[in-house]
Amino acid sequence: YVKLDLTLLEPKDLPAYLAQDRLRTILLDKCGLVGPLPPPTDADYWLQKPSARALDDCCNEFWSLAAYVTKGLCRRELLYAADHLYLLRRELLRMLGWSVGFAYGFSFSLGKSYKCIGRYLDPRDYEALLATYRQHSLPALWEALEDWEDPEDFEASEGVLVWFPQETKLT
């Protein structure tokens, strides 16, 4: 399966177009306007090391959204809770991505929508992540939320972000 993107544009727009994405490849340039390009690379999509502020903001957003999910569940508003769980999952994926980056380096991509993250997570954590996609009932939503209820399980120490589920935390 091969997907081709046919893009037609004015010559004046070519430099901006080429600068947008280093992963693209020009298959045909009949007029020779493009010139030589560096080899395609997915480096624009690699994991990025978070700043302390980015981690703090992510955890704060996680907690704020967790309150909305809980409110929806307590009111038995399945659609409201599921909608906020979707937003919460985005923050969770950011934290898990950072954790993978600190463990394996920041020189690769986890794929669109974190599709490759399961290769790097502990199987139990990956199953808990997948549980956040099971939104068919209130009990399923409660379970998904409870598995990830403490973003402070992500502890940054000496430049390393590590996931410590509550039952394995050192006291």
Describe the 3D structure.
44% of the residues lie in helices and 5% in strands. The chain contains five helices and two strands. A two-stranded antiparallel ribbon has the order 1-2. Strand 1 and strand 2 form a beta hairpin. The longest helix has 27 residues, at 78-104. It is elongated.
Write the layout of secondary structure elements.
Layout lengths: L13 H7 L31 H23 L3 H27 L18 H9 L6 H10 L6 E4 L2 E4 L8
Antiparallel strand pairs: 1-2
Helix pairs in contact: 2-3, 2-5
Provide a quick synopsis of the model.
The protein has 171 residues and is mainly α. It has helices at residues 14-20, 52-74, 78-104, 123-131, 138-147, and strands spanning 154-157, 160-163.
Which features would summarize this protein structure in a list?
171 residues, mainly alpha, two-stranded antiparallel ribbon, 5 helices, 2 strands
Order of helices and strands: HHHHHEE
% residues in beta strands:
under 5%
Global outline: elongated
CA distance, first residue to last residue: 52 Å
- The computed structural class is mainly alpha
| Biggest β-sheet strands, sense, barrel | 2 strands, antiparallel
**On the 0-100 scale, what is the average pLDDT?**
84
Radius of gyration: 21 Å
How much helix is in the residues?
A: 40-55%
Question: Spans of 5+ residues with little confidence (pLDDT < 50)?
Answer: 156-160, 162-171
> Helical element count?
5
